[in-house]
């Protein structure tokens, strides 16, 4: 499929630590329940899963936040739990509860029976959504693909849903570390194949969400969370073909076909992972996402410019009034330091946006980011 040239590549350039005119911004869970138009489309679809499995409707909700706010990237509307669902665990959402699996992994036999799904078969609806969204974006902003980390997927697959104490998954980790490593190996393959299929379908950057790495001890984190994540990053396709002007190219100009190789940057995000910033930033990804508990200034002092940084406004800062939101945005910028050419900052929240956020609060945030980012780069600023 031939895609239109990219009109706004600020996000991709920031991830690659190339010069940008201003600091790009997008928000984790930017398409979601805080938007009335999302709730309307979800009602039309009938359920969250029906919405995620319908490429046209998934495309519609992906674009909704871009029509309201001057965001610099779109993120595929889907969920990290589609992969375990494709592996046969039976994902469902009980009303008022979070996600659940009908068949959680509780014994050796069910773990040994698992295999990595073929993303172009069992997860074809996701690849169709990626292609549909790329067509609808028509070069407006880049599209981010994503997956859960192997460890985070394992948590949901063994617990069967959300958990407060991680008892089931940690029981397996302590009693059967061999089985846990086997499961993580299968998931490493599944996640790498899934992200590469998204890249082939048109994703222009990819992000790995390691929501639960932060609940491990330090040595467990390195072995069970970061290790598999690093092996996923090593297997990622780093380039794809796009028409000239459609991305951040590897070489100037295009071939006779008008196509060029462009880079596909990757982002890794471990929630609660501030203490492992050094090894995380060395895993091979282009950017590291930070939650709000790690200061950007501290992160920069510790890892220098090895990676771009993404984050890290506390999502609950959006509960403030507009003037307070602007002050918090300024605080994040001041922590990062005056933006300089090629220093690589992507503004984001430190975790997903709350469904209780006022839609106007997001306008205040996005406008403040763009105004601040441009002011700091203005000549003589
Ligand atoms: O960022 C985006 O806009 C893209 C869409 C996206 C969703 N989930 C849509 C969604 C992304 C990137 C995710 C990732 C995801 N899903 C993570 C990792 C990020 C994180 O938050 O740490 C996790 C752990 C999940 C699993 C999951 N899915 C949970 C725990 C829930 C229920 C909690 C909740 O917020 O309702 C979901 C459901 C879900 N995924 C919703 C959305 C918009 C809400 C479903 C609804 O409409 O009712």
Explain what the structure shows.
This protein is α/β, with parallel strands linked by helices. It has one domain: TIM Barrel, CATH 3.20.20.210. It has 15 helices and eleven strands. A seven-stranded parallel sheet has the order 1-4-5-8-9-10-11. The chain has a two-stranded antiparallel sheet with strand order 2-3. It is globular, with a radius of gyration of 20 Å. The mean pLDDT is 94. Coproporphyrinogen III binds next to loops.
Main features:
381 residues, alpha/beta, TIM Barrel, seven-stranded parallel β-sheet, two-stranded antiparallel sheet, 15 helices, 11 strands, binds coproporphyrinogen III
**CATH-assigned fold name:** TIM Barrel
In CATH terms, what is the architecture?
Alpha-Beta Barrel
Identify the overall geometry. globular
Alpha-carbon Rg, integer: 20 Å
Element-level helix/strand string: HHHHEHEEHHEHHHEHEEEHEHEHEH
User: What is the overall number of helices?
Assistant: 15
Ligand types: coproporphyrinogen III
Our count of domains comes out at 1
End-to-end separation: 43 Å
Give the class from helix and strand content and strand pairing.
alpha/beta
Q: Estimate percent helicity.
A: 40-55%
Low-confidence stretches: none
How many beta-strand elements?
11
- Strand coverage percent: 5-15%
